[in-house]
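Example for tutorial group B:
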């Protein structure tokens, strides 16, 4: 149980009480908010330049920082849905004056395809329809990437651990040293599972973070990167993102 006392500015949990404005207190509060937001589907209320984008605000800002840090030539995103994230990444490429986006989805619904193809940023995007782990789909993605290009990969399709692990095996070879492959939403799924104690919920272990941890264990050329702040004048030490714990950075050629 979590008890928030706004008069005293404290948060109580697990038998201890901390200031809300402490690092740990804020972390607990943020995770509780994220858990509630997932339950009510708060991330389903946003658009980016006209297209629905199923992401949390904090996640988008942190992804933007990653894109700026890497300056990729190509951003590969698995999971297109309404195309909002695809347009988000394309808009960053437009602002940076470099880069393009490849979107992969097992099914790109006709009305979404029409809307994406009509968008002003569509010239910076390529749509590939097919299972993200189908060898033919992976080959089609590879054909879009030129030798020497810097690649950043976002995995945001099927979130089961098995599927994400297969995606990591398929797309990690495209990632350059210093760049990233990100398994989205694992932290959020772990939170939802923990809050449902006593209820059968496979999300606690069957999630993208579990896949990222297993991949890092067997691939020393990648490391799970902890929170990296480009700017921080606060007391917090961790991101309040749904994908915390799913960021893999390539550190060697393998």
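The residue assignment follows.
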């Amino acid at each position: 149980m979590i008890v928030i006392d706004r008069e005293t500015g404290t948060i109580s949990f697990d038998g201890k009480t901390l200031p809300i404005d402490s690092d740990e207190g804020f972390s607990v509060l943020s995770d509780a908010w994220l858990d509630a937001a997932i339950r009510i589907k708060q991330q389903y209320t946003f658009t980016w330049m006209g297209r629905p984008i199923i992401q949390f605000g904090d996640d988008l800002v942190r992804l933007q920082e990653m894109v700026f840090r890497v300056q990729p030539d190509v951003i590969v995103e698995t999971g297109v849905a309404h195309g909002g994230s695809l347009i988000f990444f394309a808009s960053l490429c437009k602002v940076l004056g470099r880069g393009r986006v490849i979107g992969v989805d097992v099914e790109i619904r006709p009305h979404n395809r029409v809307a994406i193809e009509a968008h002003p940023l569509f010239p910076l995007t390529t749509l590939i329809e097919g299972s993200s782990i189908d060898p033919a789909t992976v080959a089609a993605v590879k054909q879009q990437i030129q030798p020497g290009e810097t690649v950043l990969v976002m995995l945001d399709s099927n979130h089961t651990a098995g599927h994400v692990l297969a995606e990591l095996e398929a797309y990690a070879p495209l990632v350059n040293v210093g760049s990233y492959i990100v398994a989205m939403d694992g932290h959020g799924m772990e939170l939802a599972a923990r809050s449902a104690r006593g209820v059968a919920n496979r999300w606690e272990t069957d999630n993208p973070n579990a896949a990222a941890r297993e991949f890092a264990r067997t691939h020393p050329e990648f490391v799970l990167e902890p929170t990296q702040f480009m700017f921080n004048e606060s007391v917090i030490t961790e991101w309040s993102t749904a994908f915390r714990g799913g960021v893999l950075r390539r550190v060697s050629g393998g």
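Helices lie at 23-40, 57-70, 84-96, 110-118, 135-143, 161-171, 186-194, 208-218. Compare this with the pattern of hydrophobic and polar residues in the output above.
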